[in-house]
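Researcher: Next sequence.
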Amino acid sequence: MEPEFKEGEIVIVNPHVEPKSGDYVVVKNDEEEATFKQLKKYWDTIVLHPLNSKYEDIELEKGNKYSIVGKIVKKKVY
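Model: Next structure:
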């Protein structure tokens, strides 16, 4: 997740803020497993972009098993 997010950082998620293209979001799948990705919008297409290059983009379509929980609005190091 580096350089954007470093190990040990805590992210603050706001479920009430509408994410825009380029924002980082927390998403969950139909099994309630959560992760965070970068949201990218290309006209009518919405893509979840992983920060780890080992994984591929996920295109969100109707019936897709992912839902956006909220936008990452802050990160802190403790």
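Model: The chain has a mean pLDDT of 87. The first strand starts at residue 9 and ends at 14.
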